[in-house]
């Protein structure tokens, strides 16, 4: 999506002096996409990330290795809307692999489109042995353990379905105002990350590619309004209690056979090309809390570019004081290619920049 100006990224002295990969010791990646949303999987060359659990690893990476996030996600190797996954050592006994998610702003706690890609990757690259017709892959994320099921036919991986962490409606029908005074109502949902979820029709804007600039600005203003008035909390850990983004929908929340479309704008105004797996989980939790979808009903969800996921309420549960669901999300990821990245001495721009 278009952006307006080159935004220089300030570097601390420690970051400027940090080690970058060299031609002799590059960072190796495999690129995939799910419904058009990219995923850069870092397979080798990244420094070890210590920590007693995955949230501790997330804090360590944020404090000590953020120059490498910028190096891989930003231009000239990435772009404003790039997304990545760092494989780390699992801390949960049932996990087959553990992942830190990275993007233009930092480190998210859950990413459904990445889970759908990583399920295939784990089998295709030997992290998990293939079992036909379904292979289970357990992926440890900062929000908890996510269980994926990968279709395998004649040795080839296909579509992937995952069962979310407990997802819930944190608050419903909150009345707030944009900076220009326009009033709106929003729900707050959690599907591994917190989102403000609301009907774009309140602003007279359709969820279409040509309206992305307008929808992105609306999302930024909505998040500012929510953060100014609402204090989020999660029963499991304070590290999960932050607003990740806004999801603007077509308003079709009651169960229908036809798809419902949404756009997810997260992190630093990053636009998801997929329907957003954690966002679909949060939408399903809100729909279920409002009696708009029943357990077992399968609903198609579309992104702003028309790519699709299938979502359903797999089970009901609780998360602390919140009635919650286990959402099921299914989609297809594809491989894009491989790359080796290194830094050439003296290339200041090559440390990473974004246009935005």
Structure description:
It is globular, with a radius of gyration of 20 Å. It has an 8-stranded mixed beta barrel with strand order 10-11-12-13-14-16-17-18. A two-stranded antiparallel sheet has the order 1-20. It is of the alpha+beta class. It contains 6 helices and 20 strands. Helix content is 19%, strand content 38%. A hairpin with a 3-residue loop joins strand 14 and strand 15. It has 2 domains: 179 residues, Diaminopimelate Epimerase, Chain A, domain 1; 165 residues, Diaminopimelate Epimerase, Chain A, domain 1 (Roll).
Gap from first CA to last CA: 10 Å
Low-confidence stretches: 1-17
Strand order of the largest sheet: 10-11-12-13-14-16-17-18
> What is the number of helices?
6
CATH architecture of the largest domain: Roll
* Secondary-structure element pattern, one letter each: EHEEHHEEEHEEEEEEHEEEHEEEEE
Radius of gyration over C-alpha positions, nearest whole angstrom: 20 Å
CATH class of the largest domain equals: Alpha Beta
Annotation, overall tally of beta strands:
20
What does the largest sheet look like? 8 strands, mixed, barrel
Number of separate domains: 2
CATH superfamily of the largest domain: Diaminopimelate Epimerase, Chain A, domain 1
CATH topology of the largest domain: Diaminopimelate Epimerase, Chain A, domain 1
Structural class: alpha+beta
